Amino acid sequence: MKKTTRNPQDTIYIYRIATLLALNLLTATAGGLGLLYMRQQISATAERVRATQLAIADTDRRLQYVNVQIAEATSPDALKRRAAELALNLNVPANTQVVHLAGLPQLPGKVSAIASATAEPIFVTFELALLKGGVTSR
Amino acid sequence: MMSPAFISRWRFALVFSAITLGYCGIMARLYLLQVVRGPEIAAMAEHSRERIDVLRARRGNITDRSGNLMAATSPVIELGVDPEKMRPEDEAKLPAVAKILGMDADELSRLCQPGTITSKETGEVRKIRWRKIADAVSDSNYDKIRAAGVPAIYGNRKYVRNYPSGMAASHLIGFMNKEEAAVMGVEGQFDYYLRGQDGWRETEIDARRKEMVQFEKREIAPRDGMNVELTIDLAIQDMADRQAAKLADTYHPESVVIIVSDPKTGDILALSNWPSFDPNNYGSVPVENLRNRAITDVYEPGSTFKIVAVAGALDEHLVTPNTLVDCSASAASYRGRMVNLPGESHGPLGTIPVSSVVSLSSNKGAAQLGMKIGEENFLDYVYKFGFGKRTDAFGPGEVLGIVHPLDKWDGLTISRMPMGQAVCVTAVQMHYAMSTVASGGVLLSPRIVRRVYDAAGNTVFSFPAKARDRAVSSEAAEKLRIMLEGVASKGGTAPKAEIPGFEVAGKTGTSQKVENGHYSHTKHVATFTGFFPASDPKIAVTVVVNDGKRPDGGICYGGTVAAPAFKEIATQIIQYMAMEPPKPSGSGMIAENRTSR
User: Fold this and answer.
1) What's residue B309's pLDDT?
2) Which residues of A touch B138 (CB under 8 A)?
3) Mean pLDDT across the stretch B502-526?
4) What does the pLDDT look like over B193-217, one tens digit per residue?
């Protein structure tokens, strides 16, 4: 049987086409996968953004809730109820309990010195626990 | 072609035709779906994927002048159960859930039992998939309930308007009803600023109706409502509320109104009504409790109205504080005719100076001063002091009061109106008329709202103090102010309003109520309206007790019922605001608690 020989030019041409097809296929595959990856990332980012938004909204909501709770706990009515529950026996000062002085009292020098030495601001913190049930001080 | 040995020709034709027809049918259906109804179905598919979520704006807060929350929107959870999702093991967890909710476990168990519901319209019987358990569960309790592990019990979040300070200034604040409509007060007046603007989001959902966030198309963010800062001081409001309740307990009146304001700015620091209501639970009281009686109810002001006649006469330079007035005469000449003078409430007074007409509350003296001014001028002063006009600070519901025009006056009106008869006013009008004396003769507008501000605290709108009219000259107001100090002192009609060290200026009023067209001898309106310190007024207080009943059966006079209430509130305000007594040499005030409590 007579063996046919392929023209080298044809072989090169076929290889070129095959290479181009392979590159084309590779590009399409990579592009498709890239697109898929990109979409996944967009989706994941969007989910994260939404989750953050929801977390912020939830925090804001809880903050508002706590604000209302604090306002309720510190309303005059609630404080009076707490005072009654704790049997603090608080009364509105009578007018006779307030003494109005015409000027600053003239204290002895020693007393004045002690007064000025201790005349620092005193910070008193009422914890919410006091208003809500427990008795805590610090 | 297939051999006729295997299949007959007609059978082949039949099968071929059936298959061809089948394909034709499919093609026709495809044509119908893809071509004829294609756009419609495509739109349906698009529509079923699309979802528009409304993003609710949160209603703004209402605070007092110090920032204390008086109205806020807080999130709660409406709790319910899907009985069809209840598992056998959930039954044992129900007592724990019931304990969190503070309800009976049997009741909760009953709510969790499956059931059916019949549609009223169609008669269709359906399984119950949602049954409400609780209307408003807090976030913290809801977390505990979810932790109990009963998936069938779940909640839907909703926002409710909450009034943390309860009944305090409820008539000024107003409330939101069940339909989320602002009903009255600041809630209604400032609804435009408070309500905010809802947003929306256009997005896509999957087959399980879960949002596909990545396909979100557009989002318009909601704009939360702005916040409103009132002029109210919650502490002073509480003082007024307690005093109103105390008056109600002691005298069982029809109503009590107490107004506290800053006479130099018109700021209302407290406005208390009794009976009152809690805006968190407005439906539990009679509807008349919702009325802001300070602006809706009118009464004859009685002697408190004498300030108009005296101020007018001083302003017209017709009298001085030392001008003598004959308060023993039974009639006086007026424009060529004799007009009968009213009787005195506190016995015969003889001839007294104008200053005593005020401090002793002489009816005859006030009538003669009114006659000196003349009808036209007197009516002009009545309007200048704000009577017969709305203040327009309180929104709908405020009434004008009753001030008759001159052509409706009879022969006696000029002698009766100066003493506070033949005229009807609201408590707010009377309060601001007295404040006019305190502010040097300028009638100010009541101010309820100081500013509207955004979430960052930036002022968006501010509402400065506003003068409405100059009623009288500052000199006339000054002279009247000094005269009014005599009322709240020994020898005046309201010694019980005197606060040692503080110059209290004020005026009592006791008017008979009209019953069946006649003045009642048993029903009265007791009023005291005043301000302090007289030389530099900082606070004005008005107390109106409508139809009080004294335990001893006596008449509730302004000087005996309203004046002591004034003093009690004023004393508390002095301590709260650390006000110094107006002494020239005074350089400070030291509060000393002499007793143990």
Assistant:
1) 95
2) 65
3) 90
4) 999 999 998 888 887 777 888 888 8
Q: Residues B213, A43: contact at Cβ < 8 Å?
A: yes
Q: What pLDDT shows up at residue A113?
A: 47
Alpha helices in B233-348 (DSSP H): 234-251, 293-296, 306-315
DSSP B199-265: EEEEEEE-TT--EEGGG--EEE--BPPPEEEES--HHHHHHHHHHHHHHHHHH--SEEEEEEEETTT
Neighbouring residues of B502: CB distance < 8 A, sequence distance ≥ 6: B532, B533, B570, B574, B579, B581, B582
Q: What angle do CA B52, B55, B58 make, to 5 degrees?
A: 165
- E strands of B88-193, at which residues? 116-118, 125-127, 131-137, 153-162
First-last CA distance in chain B: 119
Residue A118 lies in a domain: no
Write out the two tokens for B564: 């002591």
Q: pLDDT category, B159, cuts 50, 70, 90?
A: confident
Size of chain A in residues:
138
Q: What per-residue confidence (pLDDT) applies to B18?
A: 96
* CA atoms of B514 and B300, how far apart (whole Å): 9
Domain membership of residue A134 (yes or no) is no
Domains contained in chain A, number = 1
Residue A36 lies in a domain: yes
Contact B71, B62 (CB under 8 A): yes
Residues B422-461, buried b or exposed e (16+ Cβ, 10 A)? bbbbbbbbbbbbbbbbbbbbbbbbbbbbbbbbeeeeeeee
Question: Each residue of B415-428: pLDDT tens digit?
Answer: 999 999 999 999 99
A63: pLDDT strictly greater than 80: yes
Does any domain span residue A113?
no
Token look-up 């999957």 returns B206
- Give contacts of B58 with chain A, Cβ < 8 Å: 64
Ramachandran sector of residue B578 (left: φ over 0; alpha: ψ -120 to 50; beta: rest):
left
Chain B neighbors of A105, CB-CB under 8 A: 590
Q: Which residues in chain B (118-177) have CB-CB distances under 8 A to chain A?
A: 138-139, 162, 164-168
Tokens representing B238 are 């509480």
Residue B166: which of A68, A77, A93 has the nearest Cβ? Answer: A77
Residue recorded with tokens 């590159």: A23
A43 → chain B, closest CA residue? B214
Q: What is the ipTM of this complex?
A: 0.74
Q: What is the mean pLDDT of chain B?
A: 90
- What's the confidence (pLDDT) of residue B595? 32
Residue B200 Ramachandran class (φ > 0 left, ψ -120 to 50 alpha, else beta): beta
pLDDT reading at B569 higher than 60 = yes
Domain residues for the domain of A53 are: 8-99
Tens digit of each residue's pLDDT (9 = 90 or more) over B385-409: 999 999 989 988 899 999 999 999 9
Number of A/B CB contacts below 8 angstroms equals 107
